[in-house]
Each structure stands twice: as C-alpha cells, then as structure tokens.
Amino acid sequence: MSRRRYRHSVLANRARITVVVLLGILAGVLFRAQVLRATDWLLQSERNRLRPLTVPAPRGIIRDRDGRVLADNIPGYSVSIVPDQPDSMFSTLGRLREHLDLPAGRLEALSQQVRAGGPRPLLVTGDAPFDAVAALVERRSGFPRLLIEPRPKRRYPAGQLGAHVIGYVGEINESELGRPEFEDAEPGWIVGRSGVESHYESLLRGTVGTRYVEVDAAGRIVGSFGGVQGVAADPGEDVDLNLDLELMEWIHQVFPEGMNGAVVALDVETGGVLALYSAPAFDPNVFAGVVDAEEWSRLVGNPESPLYHRAVMGTYAPGSPWKLVTAAIALDLGLVTPDEHMPVPCRGAYMYGNRVARCWDSDGHGSLDLPGAIQHSCNVYFYQLGLRIGLTRMLGVGNRMGFGNRCGIDLPQEAGGIFPESLDFWERRFGYRAQEGEVLSLAIGQGPNDQTPLKMAQFLLAIARDGSAPAPTLYREAVPADGWRLEIRPEHLEEIREGMRRVMEPGGTAHLSSLEHFDLLGKTGTVEHGGEGLEHAWFTGIAGPFGGPPEIVIVAMVEFGGSGSGVAAPLVAKAADFYLRGKHDMPRDTIQTLREYLGAGRNTAWADRREAR
Amino acid sequence: MTGTRPAWLRQLPFTATVLVLSLFGVAMIYSAGVLEVPSPAMQGLWLRQAVILAAAIVGLLMLSRVPLRWFEWFAMPVYIVGVAVLAVTLVAGTGVGTAEGVNSFLSIAGFRFQPAEAAKVTTALALALLLARREEPPGYLRDLLTPALLVAVPLGLVLLQPDLGTALAFVGMFFAIIYWARTPWPLILFAASPGLGLLLAFSARVWSVYIILLAVALYLYRFRLYLVESVTVILGNVAAGAVAQPLWNSLAQYQRNRLLVFLDPSLDPRNAGWQLIQSKVAVGSGGLVGKGFTAGTQKRLAFLPEQHTDFIFSVIGEELGFVGTSLLLLLFCHLFLRMIRMAETASAPFAGLFIFGIMGVWLTHVFVNVGMTVGVVPITGIPLPFISYGGSFLLMSWTAAAIVVALASEDP
After folding, report:
1. Cβ B36–A214 below 8 Å, yes or no?
2. What is the value of pTM for the model shown?
C-alpha cells in the first residue's frame, strides 16, 4: 500500500469533493423543485389553501302583467358551520342556540347531519335575523368555524295570494340532487319547490358563481381571498306572468269568507291566466329560510289542506256547467241545431227503459230549444241530447277535448280530469259493462266525471272564442301546450252563449248577478257532494263589453258553498266586472251586481231596460 | 505566534459562519411562529432560542480558551458520564413537544435537555482520542473493533429511545473519524457493508448479487485481511440480511410508514405522506425568490408539520425561495470546507480527528434534514444544525464549535 494515498492532504481533498457533491445534490434537487417546477408546486399550494365556495345567484324576479312584483329577493344571511370534529360541532350548535331560534326539531335534524358527516359546511339557517348575525359577528372569536354569508332571501310581497301559483323555494334535497336537471347542483342550493318557482326553475335560477376563501390545514376558513378572481354569479331571468295581481286581490276580497274553493280567470284572446285563486292559502314567506319542521307539519296536517292548489289540482263533479259541454259535443258532431226541440218535452222526469231520470224541477220545463234548455238547465232536454250523441261518441269527443287529461298549464302540478277514456272504464272501475244509459248521467255532468276548475275554464275558452281552446299559460312568453278545437259554426256558438246570457236575465238562475256595464254570460252548477245540504257551488262565466267579443272567462268553484247562483255567481260577476272596468278605464268603486242594487234599494233602470230588451 | 489574539478571532471564518447560521435560525424560528391561527405553544420560541444562543456564545468564548490537553484528559471520563446519562434517560426520560413519541429528554431541576446531543460531542472526543493514540493507521478490521464498540454503545442507547435521526449522526461521525484516521477505504467499505446489507435485504435477488460482489471484493483484498475477518464480514452481512425482516417488523408503524412513503408519498397521503407532500409543496412553491419572510402560506396555514424544528428548511424554502436555500447551502458548504481545512492544519492528530468527526456529524444532519424536506432521504427526526429550534441541540452544537475552535487554535 502506498502511504501517499492516505496522506491528510489527499483525504482532505476527497472530503471536500464529498461535501461539495452531497450539497450539490441537494442544490440540484432544490433547483429542480424551486426553479424548474415552481409553477406546479405553486399551483398545488394555492389549491391547498384556497377553497371554492359557491356564490348563490339571485333568482329572477316574478312579476304580474302590470309589473307588480310577486317574488323578489332581499338581503339575508346564512349561518353555517365548517365541518370539524362532531363534538365541537355539537358544542357550537349548542352555543348558537343562545343567538338563533333553533326549535328542537330543527336541532335534531342538524344533529343528524353532523353525525352523517360530510365535507360541506353545515347550513344552520338560511335566514338568520339581522340582530343575531350582528351578535355572532361580534363574538367571532368564540365561533371560529362559523361561516356567515350573505344569501339572497326570497320574498313574496303578494303573500298568500301567490302562494299556490308562484309557489315557494327551499333548500335542494337528496332526491332532487339525483335528478338530471340538477346535475351540477350542490347541497344548500335554493330551488323552486312548487308553482312558477318550480316550473321555471331553469330560467329563474341563474348561474352560481364561485369565490375563494383561504383555509388552514385544519380546514378552518381564515379569511376571504381577493387574489384569485372568482366567478360572479349570473342572476336568473325575470319571469313576467299573465297574472293580474289586482284581480287576485279583488277575488280574495269577494271570495266567501271561511270557505274553500278556487277561481280561475283566463284571457279569452290569448288563453293567458289572469287569476288562479285557491282558498285557503298559506304564506309562502315562511318557506324563505329553513323550513321549520313544526310549521311544515302544521300546514300538512291542516284538515283544510292549505297547501292544496284547488284551482289546478282539485277535481270536482262538474254538474250543470257540463251541459254546455254536452251541447258543444252535439253541435260539433252536427247532431242538433240550436232551434231544434227534443221529442219529449220536460214533465219533470224522463223515462229511459224502466228507469226514471228526473229533472231538477219536478214541475217540468215543457218543450225547449237549446238556449232555453241551457237557460233552465233542463235535465230532460240534455238526457235526450246525450242519448242522441250516444255513449261512445260522447266519450270520443270528450276525450278529444282533453277531459281525461291535463290542460298543460305551465305549472309543475296539475291534476288531469277524470273522464272515461273508453267503454272499458266501467268494467275496470265498477266491474260491469257500460250500458247506453250511462250517457244520461254523463250528459248532465254526473257519473264518473270529475274536472278541475282550470279544465272547465279552458272549455269555456272554446265557447267564448271560435271553438278553439288553447292551453292556459302563466308565463307571458310561454310556448303553450297543445290545445284543441271544436267544429262548431259561429252562429251555433252564439246560440250556446245566448243560452248562457239568458241565465243572467230575468227568469234565469243567476239574474241577480247580472252587471250594469258588461255582458256577463254564465252557467250555474250545484253539485251534491257527500250528503244532504252539502253541495259544491259552480259558476262558469264569460264576460265582455256589450255587443263586443268576450274578453274574460271566469270559473268559480266553492266547496260546500251551497247553490251556484247564490255563492259562485256573484263571485264571478264581481271578478269579471272588476277586471273589465279596469281594462276599459272605468271607476271601480261603484256597486256592481243587480243583487247589490236591489239590496241598497237603488234605481235599477239598467236592469229594467235590459228586461225590456 | 499570535498569542494575544483570542482563539475565536483566529478562527473567525468558522465562528462567524456559525454565528450567522444561528442568527438566521432565530429569524426563521420567529417566522415559523407567524401563523394564521396562532398557536400558544409556538409563541416566543424565537426569543427562547435567542437567549440560549446568547448563553452559547458566552460558552464558546470561555470553552475556546481551554488547552487541548485538558480535552485529552477529560475525553474518556466525559464519555463514560455521557453514556451513563443516556442509560438513565432510557429509564427516566420523557418525550417533549414535537419529539413526543421519543423518550429523549431528561429533566433536572426544571431544565429539560437531550443527553443524546451531549453524547455526540463526548463520543467524538473519546473516538478522536482513541484513534489519535495509534501510531499507525488502522490496517486490519480488528483495529476498528474498539472504535466501533465505543460508538456502538451510545448509538445503541439512542436507537432504543428510539431516535433514528441522532443515531444516523453517530454513524456519520464514526465513518468521518475512521476516514480521517487514514483507514484504507476498502476497510471502511467492509466495515460499512453490514449496514448496506441490511438496506439491500428488501429484495432477496439484489441481496444475493450484493453478497457475491462482497465475497469477490474480500477475495481480491485477501492479503490485507485475516481470514477470520473476511469470514466475519460475510457472516455480518448474512446476519444483517437475516435480521432485516424481524427488524422491519419490530419498527413502529409510523417508522415503517415514513420509510414506505419515501418511496411513494401517495401511499399514506393523510399521515406520513402528508408531511412529505406538504413539505415538497412548500419548498417548491417558494420558487426562485420565495413568498417573502413570514409570508409562506403553507406554513402560515399550518400545512407544514414541525415547522420550527425538523421542517424549518421547508419554511426557508417557501419564504426565501431558491435564492435563500442555495445561499444557506453555500454557508454550510463554507462551514464544512473551513472545518476540513482546520482538520488538515491542526497541530495534533486528536484535534484533526475531532474537528473532522464533528464535520461528519453536521454534514449528516444537513444532508438528511434538507434531503428529507425535498424527498431525497426518508423522513427521520433530525434537526438542521444552528437553524432548527431546540435548546440542547443549539447549545451542544456551539459546545462542539467551541472545542473545534479551541483544538484548531492549539499551537504545536
């Protein structure tokens, strides 16, 4: 061995090389990470500390035909807890109770969510009162993981009036999250729950934005971050409706107090929905924040069913107004002319086989033409007309007119009418073959036939127009669903209207509801339901200026309201008068129906004049 | 000679570097305490470190005046005391702070310190003394037996704590000193071979190839070794291969994970891999010039583990960027080259051996510590000399520096 190799100068040089190489390796690795790859790592550190939070988009505003606001947004605050250990979340919830009103039920629901876990902030309330928010912000240090965010809150200035039509909003639920239309939705989103809010959800919702907050390693939000530009929320589109809020308010005023029912008013020209009223109602504003479970069960459990939208979901036996349908079917098929009298005059009853079918007036109406039969609502005439149509054809045309279906109004929930689609219906439903005699019941609006007030109003459109019935629409720019059309000569339609006009004239059932300034045509209906003295009251009306084309169609249906002429007819008359006076720039503060004139002992020259005519 | 100039001034390039490193460390410990959500445990740590640094400076001024022969006299008694205290620590020690799981601290009269830090210095003294007394360089493996035993005792005690990082420092010291004792490099390799065998035992095939190569090497070197030594080396390697699996099994889960995530951090991204990933993110995101002093987001938002002790380098990397890290490495490089020079020019073999041994300890610390923050070396709890927070470590590093100054300044 050579000693030279192990001299200290040689060893020192080797040691120097080793030191430089080892530190050089480190420097090389650092150069690669900090200079060559810095952008990747920087991106990762940003991703580490910045959490995107969803910025809710303000929902579109819903307005009525004159721009009156039916639903808009006001500033509100949501309070959430950033996920943490369940114990500390429970403790935070407990301490929050000092500041927020958290009923036991809500607390229980929140506790369940805490136990279920999850990465998203736990929404305690979407509608924290301002003073509570102020108190919480003041005590921020005591609530390190509390997330207080501005969150637009839905407001319904029309209150109960819009409850059913406009609907309300709520936090998106599990089942909705699974649906395709909510593909990109996140828990905590506010979505339409019913009515227009739900049907036009995609228009109203807008596009959510994103903002970034800085979080620490434990996921605590330590501040908002301005450095990375988020995406601003894109507000939803406004939705202007055909609805007339003033008319709705008026209907609410004149609707018999304490009674349940519905009123539908349609614009004859467009089929636009002017009023869709359902009583009783509820205040949709209670759903604006987080729905209190107690409040919800109170609404659901209410025997009056305030949540139930009677105008479009309630199906009722149509009764006498259906006689107009029978007449329309017969004319459509060309089976009758309006001036034709039925072979058997009315003697209070009609013999069919060994069955006695009664007229409502046991004294009888004698021999009538079509307008007369409509005026007197003569069952015997319509029994015979029904037999002439025949059961099969009655069902055929009835179904063509969509009585077994929905109108296709732009609302999420609409009940279809109940109407036999074929003869098999009886076998399936009642277990026997349909007899030809079934047509007797159907002809006068009884039998297996239930219709919604909306459906009846749509039918009336066909009578008020040229036989065509477009689908009613709420949204002004809605593309209406398919309507239908009757093949009735204009002069024959006028004869049906003449029959309805006579209902309002002396001797007609609704004479007392006739109007001073407008031509009101109608048909009353009183349908027994559930026993003696329990009757649903119908009135279906068409109104417009004298001598002009009809402008509004109104259907009123009052559950257990008693007689159609006594309860439903004044309602329709006043509603039509209110609407038409507004439309034709007439004062609205004078007396409207004949009944009121008589009650006030006032001069009724106009009624006399019309009587003379 | 320049008897009038104090030792520290004569070694100014060395002492100044140590001081600059320590002051830089205090600054970075201050920065490590700047958190978005302040942690009470980390408040004022920089001040504590500064106070200890002041004490360490005073200690250096005094200790650097001590003559070389005093260290020779005291080397063995101090070594024995050091080992004894280490043994006591195993029984009475506690885990503290970031070293919670390791019973490496001893409390005496309210002061806590880590005997292992002192043992590094005492062992280096003893080892230097032992090898300095030899007339000839170690020529046979058996010549390395006593030095190996001398290191093995404290190293074994430290491993039992268990403190793998400090144990590595002992290994670095041992090889540095026997290297400076002019041990032929084949001998050093043979001495190191059981350790290599242990590492390679993860694959039977690799290990088999390695053993054959080793046997060939021993055959070529047969005239320099007794047969019994060759056989011992082979047996040692076989034994290392054999205990590898049981040893692996005896490791705590966190230790195993640390080694595993070194190979693939995504194996355990929430726990063991977390430290490595977050550290790499911190260092890498620092870029060329860093995010600014105290402004590192990874650190500020508590993504960095142990940011004032073992991972202080990640804070430096994040806040000062490549400029900061490369300057720091240059400082260390200067320190080590300076120490090599001091060892080279030392008047006595004992001085050179000690200085070189301490250089070996610090180099190990720097390489393993910086290496683990960037994923070059598996994560072991090992601090960065003069920079990391820790009273015992700073104090004992300065003690070692003082002895280095004292020994280097000894006139012949």
Report:
1. yes
2. 0.68
